[in-house]
Design goal:
- With about 170 residues, the chain is an all-alpha fold.
- It has seven helices and no strands.
- Helix 3 packs antiparallel against helix 5, helix 3 crosses helix 6 and helix 5 packs antiparallel against helix 6.
Length: about 170
């Protein structure tokens, strides 16, 4: 992995947001009658959170030293725990892809609890220790910040849309 240019290594995680965004756009184009917030949430849950977190799980289990080096952190037994924390996020993402809005909101909030904590840790390492490693800044920060934020925003919008009395007219379809 160290042979790849820094720009490629730091932006690679963005693929986990780009692919579901493309899927959602294409789905909305093919099925314009489906609620866009729901389509985007399902793609985002499965692709960005589910597949992205599964990738991190596999990476930390298969290449723990490489992952530590990519992040710029010391090698530690906690890498095993980070792998399984990400497996939990993957399960949340896969489940949220077929869940009702309230459960998708809960999945986004649970992802935020872990990933926004990771953002704080990465930013601290960046400023306190000058850690500009590809896995500490750049794409991973965008992922850790945006994946839960988008999940929460879309699920809240979808939930608001399905709650009677929230702007829907009588007899309108959900």
């Amino acid at each position: 992995m160290d042979t790849l240019p820094y720009a490629v290594r730091t932006t690679f995680p963005l693929l986990f947001m780009l692919a579901p965004a493309l899927g959602a756009l294409l789905t909305c184009r093919r099925s314009p009658d489906r609620p866009a917030a729901e389509v985007w949430q399902r793609w985002w849950s499965f692709g960005a959170l589910g597949i992205g977190s599964l990738w991190i799980t596999i990476s930390f289990l298969a290449l723990p030293d490489g992952m530590a080096d990519t992040i710029g952190f010391a090698h530690s037994p906690f890498q095993f725990e980070i792998a399984f924390a990400n497996l939990g996020l993957a399960v949340l993402g896969f489940r949220a892809a077929s869940a009702p809005p309230r459960e998708r909101l809960t999945s986004g909030l649970a992802a935020a609890a872990f990933l926004w904590g990771a953002v704080i840790g990465h930013v601290h390492q960046w400023f306190a220790n000058g850690d500009h490693a590809a896995g500490n800044t750049g794409g991973i920060l965008a992922n850790d910040l945006l994946i839960p934020a988008v999940m929460i925003a879309l699920a809240a919008r979808d939930l608001h849309r399905t709650v009677p009395g929230c702007g829907r007219t009588a007899g309108s379809a959900a």
